[in-house]
Design goal:
Layout lengths: L2 H55 L5 H82 L1
Helix pairs in contact: 1-2
Amino acid sequence: MSRSERMKPVLRVAENRERVSVKRLNEWQQLLAIQENKLLELREYRDEYTQHFQMNSTQGMSTVRMQDYRIFLQKLNQAIEEQVKVVRQTHEDCESCRKQWQVIHGKTKAVDHLVDRFKAQELADIERAEQKESDERGQYQKSRY
C-alpha cells in the first residue's frame, strides 16, 4: 500500500473534525445573530416606550403613573445591559470557536497537502520506472542488432 493510500484515513478523520468544527461555528454564529436581534428589539422597544412616555408626560400624568413608567424604563434599561453582556459573551465564544476552526482547518489542509505530495512523488517514481524500463528496452534492442 502506498504512502498516499495509508494517509487517506488520516485525511478522512481530519476532514470529519473540520466538518464538526464548521457545524459548531455555524451554530455559534446563529446564536449570536439571535442574541443581537434580541438586543435590537429591546432597544427599539425602549425607544418606543420612551417616546410614548414623553408624549404622555406632557398631557398631565399622575405621579404614580409617571413613577411606574420610570420604574419600568429602568427595568428595561437593566434588561438591555444584561443582553449587552450576553451578546458580548456569545461573541467571544463565537470568536473562540472560529479560532478553533482555523486551527483544525489548517491541520486538514496540511494533511491534504501531504497526501498530494505523496501522490506526486509516487507518480514521479512510476514515471521514472517506466522511463528506465523504456531505456533498458531500447538498450536491449540496440545490442541485438
